[in-house]
Amino acid sequence: MSRARWFVALLFSLVVVAAHADDGAGPKLEEVPISESERAHWAYRPMQQVVSPQVSDGVWNANPIDAFIKAQLERKGLAPLPRVGKLTLLRRVCFDLTGLPPSTEQIEDFLADESPEAYERLVDRLLESQAYGERYAQHWLDLARYAETDGFEHDLLRPNAWRYRDWVIDALNSDMPYDEFLRQQLAGDELYPDDPQAAIATGFLLCGPDMPDINLQEERRHVVLNEMTATVGSAVLAMQFGCAQCHDHKYDPIRIQDFYRLRAFFESAELFRDLPIATSEERAAREAAEASRGDEYHQAVKRRDELEQQGRELARKVNPDEPPTLKRALAELSDSERAEHSAAVAITEQAPPLPDLPLGRVLRPGKRQDAHFYLRGDFRQPGPVVEFAFPGVLVKEQDAMADHVTERPRTVLAEWLTQDEHPLTARVIVNRLWQWHFGRGLSSTPSDFGTMGAEPTHPELLDWLARRLVADGWSLKKMHRLMVTTRAYRTASVPYEVEWTVAEVARARELMAQNQAVDPDNMLCWRRPLMRLDGESIRDAMLTACGKLTERRGGLGIRPPLAPEITQTLLRGQWKPSGDADDHRRRSIYLFVRRNLRYPMFDVFDRPDTNASCPQRHESTTATQSLTQFNSAFSLDCARELAGVVWPATASDPITAERKAIVSAHLRVSNRPPTDAEVEAALAFLDKQSARLREENRDAKTLALPAGHHASEPYRAAALVDYCLALFNANAFLYVE
């Protein structure tokens, strides 16, 4: 910047500061009051007491959710698609609640169970499985912008970030009430100062990107606090607070003062260093180990430290401009003092090592700091001091927060956010649950309930769900169960089903045409949308199909081997593969999350970049997805493993063995038996593909054969591998009806 432009910018800043001054009485901010019309927006109004309607179809009155859906459909003259068959429903709910396909045992058991409660019992088992927490933790981690590195140029490692990921999984599996789930993530260290797990929960606030090597640490802190405030606003309240860090929000009733008052709750927190999270037992063990070292050790430590401090003081006198390193400090001591120092060091080094205390990327209360309004969001232009306050549009009258926030500001914020009558907190999370189950929220902008967001298609249902969540003790599992046991959830996605009769298929197609003419985007939920698997579920399902998914859980992020052309784009040592090959086949949520390099399969299937809170993943359709599924080493390995599982080592009747292999592979990948036509098509493919491989005079040693298989007919076996690879690329695998 030229000196002239710098001077103009400085002059303008002084004018702005002067404009906010109050005749020498100190800086004072003018604030536009919240109008009644702004408060009247649907999201800011109190939740209504709603009674579910009664509809003409008595079956749809059994679950209150269904009654709301059916009432809207009847008003529009629409009818839902028929219910899906058992196998389609089984695959749908297994992927939905656990992110994994049903096993062959689950398929057999579910088909054999003819009782009316079979589906409800299945849902209960899925919700109680460890896989449930691993599935829904990924949804929350997308919102939390979780990663195990800082991002930016150096993308430095966060060695303890994984603890937060494991905390989220455990909290969801234990069905921690959602209000408590939020309280611990916002203020666990304040609420439960002696509980390491509660401190780990605050990692939510520190998940975002960071630049430790920035020139000005003041700027670093300013950026992190702003990002923290914006994420709490969008993830918890579905309010775009980040837009107001420089100016009043252009559309929503969020003033710039609101942003910095909300940020004030986080202002005094200690940031930027991992802190001890030891249990009382771990602390006691360390204290006992220290005490066992005896007086000689402690006297040696004391004398060592005294001599080093003495040497540093002498070094500063000799050269005040040079930092007094230990080497320089020792050089300033006398010969006898250096000998005494060496003897003390020798005694301390002979002592047995102390047990390490675990560290965590957590928040702790720090020194109380004044919070400021920043002119145009510039950290170099602090304005007036601001006090703690809740967003003005959500409270009728602001209390004098400074009187009762005292030493636990984040606790006050967490308690306010989780009040039973809060207009946003429960609405936001039930809308997200609906989105995760039905593909789109009742409001299709799940992190923006503001003026530019989408109004809910079923506002009464949204309020009914929010109040039901609170009435059920904020239990997320109960809400999951309520949603996935609805008739709306069990409707078909497409107008055909293997288990339907010809007449039922014809009727479904007729309904599909009628409904699309009135509601082409399925806003009224007359069918359950066809949903593509995300990258993590694709990988986990492939490993499950070939029997290689390991059940190891928790701990440091796992780094499977990557192709050299990928790792060479990183700095040295930024992707060192984990040593145990079994770890490479763990569930995708346990893979290492590097901000500057997404795992290739996840990258092509639209995993978010973790630099910002992601409420809903973008879903693209690109050539690289097909190329990855067909040509990656991972896909070929899974196809070989699957072929090795389904192809018998010996068979008296090769034709029957091939048919059984085709049926088994199809069942493992698509989670339903193939039709007769599909079996015949598969056999024709094996004939054609094996003949082509033989005609090419391919050396049998170069063929991709089933894992662990020594075939007398290698070309036929290699063709089966290609068939398994094709199954992994079929829409029947990649999409869930």
Structural features, described:
- This protein is mainly alpha-helical and 737 residues long.
- Among the domains are: 58-85 and 424-518, no CATH class; 294-351; 531-622, no CATH class; 633-736, no CATH class.
- The chain has helices at 3-19, 36-39, 64-75, 86-98, 104-112, 118-128, 130-144, 162-173, 178-191, 196-201, 217-237, 256-263, 280-291, 294-318, 326-331, 335-350, 402-405, 409-417, 425-438, 459-471, 476-484, 502-518, 535-545, 564-567, 600-604, 623-631, 633-646, 654-670, 676-695, 714-728, 731-734; strands at residues 269-270, 275-276, 359-360, 364-365, 371-374, 382-386, 531-532, 735-736.
- The chain has a two-stranded antiparallel ribbon with strand order 1-4.
- A hairpin with a 7-residue loop joins β5 (371-374) and β6.
- α14 (294-318) packs across α16.
- It is globular, with a radius of gyration of 31 Å.
- The two termini are 58 Å apart.
- Residues 1-26 have low confidence and may be disordered.
Write the layout of secondary structure elements.
Layout: H1 3-19, H2 36-39, H3 64-75, H4 86-98, H5 104-112, H6 118-128, H7 130-144, H8 162-173, H9 178-191, H10 196-201, H11 217-237, H12 256-263, E1 269-270, E2 275-276, H13 280-291, H14 294-318, H15 326-331, H16 335-350, E3 359-360, E4 364-365, E5 371-374, E6 382-386, H17 402-405, H18 409-417, H19 425-438, H20 459-471, H21 476-484, H22 502-518, E7 531-532, H23 535-545, H24 564-567, H25 600-604, H26 623-631, H27 633-646, H28 654-670, H29 676-695, H30 714-728, H31 731-734, E8 735-736
Antiparallel strand pairs: 1-4, 2-3, 5-6, 7-8
Helix pairs in contact: 4-6, 6-21, 7-8, 9-18, 11-12, 14-16, 19-20, 19-21, 26-27, 27-30, 28-30, 29-30
